[in-house]
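Because showing beats explaining, we think one record worth quoting, sequence and backbone structure tokens together, and here it is:
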Amino acid sequence: MYDKESVRRPLPAEEPTSTSHPDVVERRREAAVEWRVTEVPPIETALWLVKPPARIRGTWEEPKEAGEWLGRQLMEYAPRFASARDRGAELPVAYVASAVERLMWGGDVSLGFYLGQPLFLSLALVTCSPNRTRPDLPCPAR
């Protein structure tokens, strides 16, 4: 799924024309069908804000609380990480500290780990107050 970029981008605003390349028409068709339902991470972390609210795993008022959630996810999945380097206890601690720092200045966090082929764990924390990189995107329902 990660090589199918059409499911990683929201529906383009422009409609294809009769002279549009077939790939453009197909990409719009795929995006219309799959964008809202797929759990594949969007091409930009901030675009999680326009995914359906059912994709939200939690909301937090403070970066530290979001970091604690991230830490729990990392500890739960760490034994399954494909890379032995990522399985150590020190790496989740570093990721959480970095994530909290980034969230404090309004940045987003996006992490990904192979759990073994073809499984991939994607974790994202998205700032919404408004989002620094995409202030035009509304915060999803809480």
Q: What stands out?
A: Helices lie at 22-34, 63-77, 90-104.
